[in-house]
Amino acid sequence: MVTRTIRLATTAGVLLLSLAGTTARAGAEEIPDMLSAHPIADALAVEAAKLAADPQEARPVAIEYSDAHETRAKIHKYTSWATLPLMATEFALGQKLYDDPDSATSSSRGVHGTIGAALIGVFAVQSVTGAWNLFDASSAPGHRKRLVHGLMMLGAEGGFIAAAAMAPGHGRNDLINFDARKSTHRNVAMVSIGVGTAGYLLMLLTGGSH
């Protein structure tokens, strides 16, 4: 709006100066003919038409979201608050088990597994609500950032599921290869936590979904 006003004002000023110069040369008898042509009004109308057709000056279209969209957004937002605490807790428990020489029989494995299941559950809720709203608001500003965020969080979720599947169990074969399996489990979990944290911070530090 400010740009339009400046351009219109500039055009009007140039035309006024030109009219004043021409009037001085032509004499008083030519003034009625010049004024009757309305050169300034015509020029301003043409300039206004050009500005209206300029896509760079077009006003953004207001986007209205449905009640269902807003509900999913709230669920996504409130559920996300548990993401970092769960990942931090899971990391701390996992590292403690990794450093424990008796981790195969440690009672902390049950707690570690429960926290991991809760983390996967949170990511599942985030995936459904986030992907649904991403598709529902594909034309809204910030779509590319939300898409990158969504892909990162889906990748982290897949990593957590894979890490859970790779975790050593209590069977004989698992106990034989316990150290190798727990190393693989830890590495996959660490990468997943890193990707999930980066995806979370991407939205947190850049103004959310806007």
Task: Kindly state the percentage of residues in helix.
Answer: over 70%
Segments where pLDDT lies below 50 for 5+ residues? Answer: 23-36
Radius of gyration using CA atoms only: 32 Å
Oligomer: single chain
Strand content: under 5%
Describe this structure in words.
- With 210 residues, this protein is mainly α.
- The protein has two domains: 2-57, no CATH class; 67-204.
- It is built from nine helices and no strands.
- The chain has helices at 2-26, 31-36, 39-53, 67-80, 83-99, 108-136, 143-166, 172-176, 178-204.
- The radius of gyration is 32 Å and the shape is elongated.
What features would you highlight for this structure?
single chain, 210 residues, mainly alpha
Question: Short summary of the structure?
Answer:
The chain is mostly helical and 210 residues long.
